[in-house]
Specification:
Low-confidence stretches: 150-163
Largest sheet: 3 strands, antiparallel
Radius of gyration: 30 Å
CATH architecture of one domain: 2-Layer Sandwich
CATH class of one domain: Alpha Beta
Oligomer: single chain
Order of helices and strands: HEHEEHEEHH
Shape: elongated
Helix content: 25-40%
Bound molecules: iron/sulfur cluster
Number of helices: 5
Length: about 160
């Protein structure tokens, strides 16, 4: 009885010793993460239009957005995530139709102090005027827009007046 148990145990030991190792020596080694990994959030503040879709999509009210009206548009001034309440469900990222909010592959978000856990992804003052690029693009769009059609008789009347 004792001898059988010992042989079985040794068989398992030898099998596991020769099997492929799955343990990774973190942090020297890391397993590759999939492309759709839900890690730390990244925000491209220049793409963000402060539409609040992500904040409204979040069931835990994690996202706090501050915005200011500049010209005709809303301008993002502050974007804070109370990440301690986040469950990384991805609803906010899916709701962003500007591709401004994304997941990265960074998972190491531990902090020594609780006060440092929150993620401030944007904190900037609003410009006094609408950025020149956007104002310029609006003007270009106006130029490109087709001119309103004249009434059918208007052109012929002017031509008749000249002759
Ligand atoms: S991942 Fe889910 S819980 Fe976290 S901020 Fe986005 S919507 Fe909210
Ligand atoms: S991150 Fe996307 S959804 Fe959220 S406010 Fe900015 S543009 Fe809107």
């Amino acid at each position: 009885m004792f001898g059988k148990g010992l042989i079985k145990g040794l068989q398992i030991t030898w099998r596991e010793m020769l099997a492929q190792k799955v343990t990774v020596q973190y942090p020297d080694e890391q397993i590759p993460l999939p492309d759709r990994y839900h890690g730390r959030f990244e925000l491209d503040a220049d793409k963000c239009i402060a539409c609040m879709l992500c904040a409204n999509a979040c069931p835990n009210k994690v996202i706090q957005i501050e915005r200011t009206r500049v010209g005709k548009k809303q301008y993002l001034t502050k974007y804070v995530m109370r990440i301690e309440y986040c469950m990384f469900c991805g609803l906010c990222v899916e709701s962003c139709n500007q591709d401004a909010l994304r997941f990265s592959k960074v998972f190491n978000m531990n902090q020594y102090f609780r006060s440092r856990v929150r993620l401030t992804l944007a904190d900037r003052p609003a410009p006094a005027e609408e950025p020149a690029e956007e104002a310029g693009s609006e003007q270009e769009a106006k130029k490109k827009a087709p001119a309103p059609k004249k009434p059918a008789g208007a052109g012929s009347e002017a031509a008749a007046g000249k002759s």
